[in-house]
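S1.2 Input.
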Amino acid sequence: MGYQAKTARAGATLYSEVTDRIVAQIEEGILPWVGPWDDGKAALGLPRNAGTGRRYSGINVLILWHRLFEQGYGSQRWLTYRQAQALGGNVRKGEQGTTVCYADRFTPKDGENIPIGPDGEPRRIAFLKRFTVFNLDQCDGLEDMASSPVTTWNKALIIPRAQMLIEATGADIRVGGGEDYAPQDDYIHVPRPEHFHEPINWFRTALHELGHWTGHRSRLDRLPDSGFGSPAYAREELVALSGQSAPSATLQ
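S1.3 Output.
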């Protein structure tokens, strides 16, 4: 079996596992991109690797957020079994890890069936690799790392920064009426702020429509030609949902 076939099969399996997990959450009434921050023990923010300090990204954010609230962990920091040992701690016996993935590309060095590009050079091949990580709450000997104070959602701080972000885009946002993005005329419609139960939800709505706005042909040229219910339409909605949820976790 060639490189492409092997990596494609491994990637398809991992994608299927993640997709099945998210679909199961939605069927249970859980929206993995909407974290119940007010009820959580952990500080607001994106999950980070406890060893490197780097933020997790992409689908890993949804996976780790769901696990965080499902188990009631008090930390947004995660690490592998070996990282826990290297830092002088250990994962408690019987603890169950969470699978996350890492995507990158590589160029095969030797062997048979190496794909060749139009330029005659070996083609870079995309791959997915899985890792098992544990929350700091699942570890012993790392209490100092897990003892940082838990902060609450400072909405008074987030909202001004969200406003600055929205204004910095330069998008044509028209307040009043429904909520949508009109790609033909390149403007966003959002209801008046007083129509929302909480002020933060106006900003979430505006950021959602700004997600669609980025796909205009003059920007990323990503908007689908097909209509509601198509796979392309669904992908575009996932982009917009990511656009409305991630800033709420990072603007503090």
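S1.4 Remarks. The two ends are 48 Å apart (CA to CA).
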